[in-house]
Design brief:
- The chain is mainly β and 402 residues long.
- The protein folds into 2 domains: 257 residues, Beta Barrel (Thrombin, subunit H), CATH 2.40.10.120; 110 residues, PDZ domain (Pdz3 Domain, Roll), CATH 2.30.42.
- The protein has a 6-stranded antiparallel β-barrel with strand order 9-10-11-14-13-12. A 6-stranded antiparallel β-barrel has the order 3-4-5-8-7-6. Strands 16, 17, 20, 21, 22 and 23 form a 6-stranded antiparallel β-sheet that branches.
- A hairpin with a 7-residue loop joins β9 and β10.
- The two termini are 33 Å apart.
- The N terminus is likely disordered.
Length: 402
């Protein structure tokens, strides 16, 4: 294979399944999850070790908005960052199957991690920085956002939830910190910057995760589910994926975190109901380009251009149109004739990504949404009733899709 081949990897560690004598006897099939996790070779790694407790330093409280030094941040935050170890059942024996990270969300025993860390696991254990080990129960998971919540009975003394920040306060260039368990090395802190915002990354389903954060802070296998933090000690994302070259699964300076905007929307529902229902429009498209606008003689140069409509989806039922013709322009073939969405519920839409974010973060299944559509040179409002995302899509329906 060529060395410059790029791949996106989920960053939970996959441990070799060792034969451990145990009386647990309910098999769990963990081989059917359709996700990049199944394309990853297992890592030959020793069983996870418990790290010694960090030195306790008495620090004064900080005021809202005050930034900390890395030392202060680590001392305050690390006790609430955990190592998550999963176990699989195979041939009537139970063995470690994977490892990731997580962090304390509230005072009720709830810990956030990635869905790909715990999905299909037979048992889950949580290891705190002081060595305390607690059995955990998966109370909810959402494969569409790659988020999960596990619950423990209690925390070690003094462990406090990590506060959540706001996505609107995140800017390119700001310093961020990742804390987790790369390669099983508990309590590891790395520093970097936010290198880009608004990325769309693959989920564990045919859909995508919008508004994701790109960072150059070193995150590696085992960091999955750990927090990405600002210097106020607030969570701005959950570390989930890295982009690498070829088959090298180590960090190459491009990592991705699920944004806090999605955490705030999904996690409360996972705790309350065990699942989260995403709204679905049922379209494929991209940004309207100046070239397309010129060829189609449109009065705008920005918007969400619709190229394909899902069969019997909400968009088709409402009468939206995808491309129905093609033309050659400057020696390039262009698919033309699709609707251009310029606003949702009266809010301007300048790109397909903005449409994706609006549907994902502001709409629920069953809700009516008014789309302002430019078709054949004229504007019209089309009301679409959103439905819940299906479990699967036709193979011809490609990503990204809201």
């Amino acid at each position: 294979m060529k060395n410059n081949m790029k791949k996106v990897f989920l960053i939970a560690m996959v441990l070799p399944v060792l034969a451990l004598a145990c009386s647990l006897a309910i098999p769990t099939d963990i081989s059917n999850l359709s996700s990049p996790l199944n394309t990853m070779p297992s890592i030959t790694a020793p069983a996870p070790t418990v790290e010694s407790a960090p030195v306790k330093i008495s620090l004064p409280p900080i005021s809202a908005g005050e930034e900390m030094t890395l030392t202060e941040l680590y001392v305050r935050i690390n006790p609430a960052v955990v190592n998550i170890i999963t176990y699989a059942k195979q041939d009537n024996q139970v063995a470690p199957s994977g490892q990731g990270s997580g962090f304390v969300y509230d005072s009720g025993g709830h810990i956030i991690t990635n869905a790909h860390v715990v999905h299909g696991s037979y048992e889950v254990e949580v290891v705190f920085s002081d060595g305390t080990i607690e059995s955990a129960e998966v109370v909810g998971e959402d494969l569409h956002s790659d988020l999960a919540v596990v619950e423990v009975v209690s925390y070690p003394e003094g462990v406090q939830p990590i506060p959540l920040g706001g996505i609107t306060d995140v800017v390119v260039g700001q310093t961020v910190v990742a804390i987790g368990n790369p390669f099983g090395l508990g309590g590891t802190l790395t520093e970097g910057i936010v290198s880009a915002l608004g990325r769309t990354i693959p989920a564990l389903t045919p859909f995508s995760i919008p508004e994701s954060i790109q960072t150059d802070a070193a995150i590696n296998p085992g960091n999955s589910g750990g927090p990405l933090l600002n210097l106020r000690g607030q969570v701005i994302g959950v570390n989930a994926q890295i982009e690498t070259t070829g088959f090298d699964r180590s960090n190459s300076g491009v990592g991705f975190a699920i944004p806090v905007s999605i955490i705030k929307r999904v996690v409360p529902e996972l705790i309350e109901d065990g699942e989260y229902e995403w709204a679905w429009l049922g379209v494929i498209g991209g940004d309207l380009s100046p070239t397309l606008a010129e060829v189609m003689n449109l009065p705008v140069e920005h918007g969400a251009y619709i190229s394909q409509i899902a069969n019997d989806g909400p968009a088709e039922r409402a009468g939206l149109r995808g491309t129905d013709d093609s033309t050659i322009f400057n020696s390039r073939q262009l698919d033309i004739g699709g609707d251009v969405i310029t606003a949702v519920d009266g809010q301007p839409v300048g790109s397909f990504g903005e449409l994706l974010i609006y549907i994902a973060l502001k709409v629920t299944p069953g809700q009516d949404v008014t789309l302002t559509v430019l078709r054949d040179g004229e504007y019209q409002d089309i009301v679409v009733t959103m439905r819940e995302r299906p479990d699967s899509l036709d193979s011809s329906f490609q990503l990204p899709t809201p």
